[in-house]
Amino acid sequence: MKKLAIIALAFLTIWSCKNDDETPAEPTFGSVVLDFKNIIDNNGVELITDTYTNGSNEAYNISELKYIISNLVLVNSNNEEFVYPVDRSYFLINEEVLASKKINLADIPAGEYTKVRFGFGVDQSKYPLNGMANFIPTAEESGMLWSWSAGYKFIKFEGTYSAADTPFLIHVGSHGTNLDNYKEITLDLPNTLTIAESTSPEVAINADIAKIFDSTNTHSLVEKSDVQVDPVNAPKIAENIKTMFSATGVTN
Amino acid sequence: MQLGLLIKINLKLFIYIVFILFGAACSSEKDDYVPIAENAKLEFTIPANFPEPSYNVTLNPPTEKGFELGKKLFYDGKLASDGVISCGFCHIQDFAFTHHTHIVSHGVDGALGTRNAQPLHNMAFMKEFTWDGAAIHLDLQPIIPITAEVEMNETFSSIINKLEAQPEYVKLFAEAFEDQKINSENILKSLSQFMIMMISANSKYDKIERNEGSVFTENEAAGFELFKSKCASCHEGTLFTDQSYRNNGLPVDPQYNDIGRNRVTGLADDLHKFKVPSLRNIELTFPYMHDGRLKTLEDVLNHYSDGMVDSETLDSQLKDQNGALGIPMTADEKQQIIAFLKTLTDDDFLNDNRFSEF
Fold first, then answer.
1. What's the whole-number mean pLDDT along residues B63-73?
2. Mean pLDDT of B215-239
3. What count of other Cβ atoms lies within 10 Å of the Cβ of residue B296?
4. What digits encode the pLDDT tens for the residues B98-109?
5. How open is the CA angle B236-B239-B244, to the nearest 5 degrees?
6. What is the dihedral of CA B269, B270, B272, B274, to 10 degrees?
7. Closest Cα of chain A to B181: distance in Å?
């Protein structure tokens, strides 16, 4: 009986190690770049110089445009999800900084992906932390922290409007536990994204900035040019932002 | 018999050998393991008369090194732009971690805040933080005082740079956290580990509530009865707060024009509402109210009986059906309530050197 036990144990030991060594075909990983482009009327946004007109017939210029993208997920053709590690999944898109508009995702399992999902802003239900706090330095350097609060501004969209160059300012974030303006966005890819070990595919994502004013809801600057912790307008604008993204191309 | 014993010993030996071999055979995965000093877990004990904590202790379990690091950071002026104003500067243990004698808190370069520093105790049991709930998690709360211009006026990037230049911090972070990194998350986690251990649950009141042999004096007992009927609907339960935000009828001070909870929610309904504070250690946390305008407990009770002003958001409990404002109390009743409130002072907590700077 005891000899049997010894033999069994020895076998188990050897087998368990062997099993480690003989994992069938090592999984391979690759990377992808999500290339964000802020557009209005199909053209890239030009800060300060270009004048645009919104659906309420208000002319405006943009001086600052920044927003937070987080919690990236890639979905493959079998509807299986690859959740990008949350501690590396917070990004600031800043119109002024070219590099910020290219989100580089690495260590993704090789495969065919058909959808990409991401968050606009910071998901409070993911608190505490989980890497979120390590985004603080980036957020504070770009003025995306509310100075009086421990919360993030999800978007900072500023400029001037009307002939009189009146400033407008749109800051949307969550309002404590009272109002959560975090939005999840799922984009169908126009063609399949192939992640493989030695390729560097790109997904082109357009953010139609005009939709901040005009989409599900209409926002007029004459009516409200200063949106900060605004329980009426902030959620409407967040709804609009949810609709502004589209995946326009995949280069494998 | 002897043979049996031999086999037994051999079996044991064999198992040891197998385990050693097993370990060696599979050890290649752990090549990059860097041994660090032992970091014992700290016991987080919920007092018998307390509710379950709001803080999820399992996600950031306090350890000896994490606590030590949190305490060092708490008392270190490096967290402020001037290298002087630490957390402990405005949160002084002798006064239940409040900024004693200061009406509003002082920050870097003599800057003045607009609110009175709140006491720090039983933080693990609180759902939201600051007078208006601008921090919805304890791990995030320190962001506010650290980055506020009138408080510590510092950035996390700069703090990380300063800490990285200090060998003792490099060592402590490595000992306290698995990833060994000096980063915002670990700074905040260690501060939380320090703060969640700050439990005040050993006042005379607690000893009575837990039937540990203490008894109220006649005055305290009368005060407790009055408290239950006049105060406990907001200062509820053993934490002495229902953690809601209410307007308690303070006239708006035009110097600050503090809109209170409205700043967080933007809702007109939240104008001039502030968090109902815990009353534990209230004897020592003077001055009182969000802006420290009232100096003594007598002043506070006088406000509640006679000092209130009406407004759109005044708490409905502070107005009777005839429109009379306040909580009626006689002078004797006030003295009895104050006698009761003093049973909430926890000397063990105030003198606990685990939390002391030196």
1. 98
2. 98
3. 12
4. 987 778 888 888
5. 55
6. 140
7. 11
Residues of chain B found within 8 Å of residue A19, distances taken between Cβ atoms: none
**pLDDT tens track for B46-66:** 999 999 999 999 999 999 999
- Residue A202, exposed/middle/buried by CB under 10 A (0-12, 13-18, 19+)? middle
Q: Which helix (H) or strand (E) holds A91?
A: strand A90-94
Q: Confirm if A181 and A238 have CB atoms less than 8 A apart.
A: yes
**Alpha carbon of B329 to those of B286, B293, B304, B335, B339: distances in Å?**
21, 21, 9, 10, 14
* B62 min Cα distance to partner chain A (Å): 15
SS in 3 state form for B124-165? HHCCCECCCCCECCCCCCCHHHHHCCCCCCCCHHHHHHHHHC
Angle between helix axes B184-196 and B156-164 (nearest 10 degrees) is 90
Q: Measured between CB atoms, does A128 come within 8 Å of chain B?
A: yes
pLDDT at residue B302 greater than cutoff 70: yes
State the burial class of residue B302 (Cβ atoms within 10 Å of its Cβ: 0-12, 13-18, 19+). Answer: middle
Dihedral sign computed on CA atoms, order A146, B245, B94, B122? negative
Q: How far apart are CA B293 and CA B275, in angstroms?
A: 16
B193 vs B190: CA distance, rounded Å: 5
Compute the distance between CA of residue A61 and CA of residue B243 in angstroms, rounded to an integer. 44
Q: How would DSSP label each residue in B216-276?
A: --HHHHHHHHHHHHHTTTTS-TTTT----EEB--PPP-TTT---BTHHHH--GGGTTBEE-
A238 in B contact zone (CB under 8 Å): no
CB A234 within 8 A of CB A181: yes
**Which residue type, as a one-letter code, is found at position B348?**
D
Band (A147; pLDDT cuts 50, 70, 90): confident
Question: pLDDT higher for B75 or B22?
Answer: B75
As given in the structure block, the two tokens for residue A60 are 């405006």
- Reading the block at residue B332, the tokens are 């004797």
Among A130, A131, A135, A127, residue whose Cα is nearest residue A154:
A135
Over 60: is that where the pLDDT of B9 sits?
no
Single-letter residue type at A166: T
**Inter-chain residue contact B147 with A131, CB threshold 8 Å:** no
- Strand-pair category, A153-161 with A90-94: unpaired
User: What are the residue ranges of helices labelled H in chain A?
Assistant: 2-21, 136-141, 233-242
Arithmetic mean of pLDDT, A85-89? 89
Q: Encode burial over B155-181: b for 16+ CB neighbours within 10 A, e otherwise.
A: bbeebbebbeeeeebeebbbbbbeeee
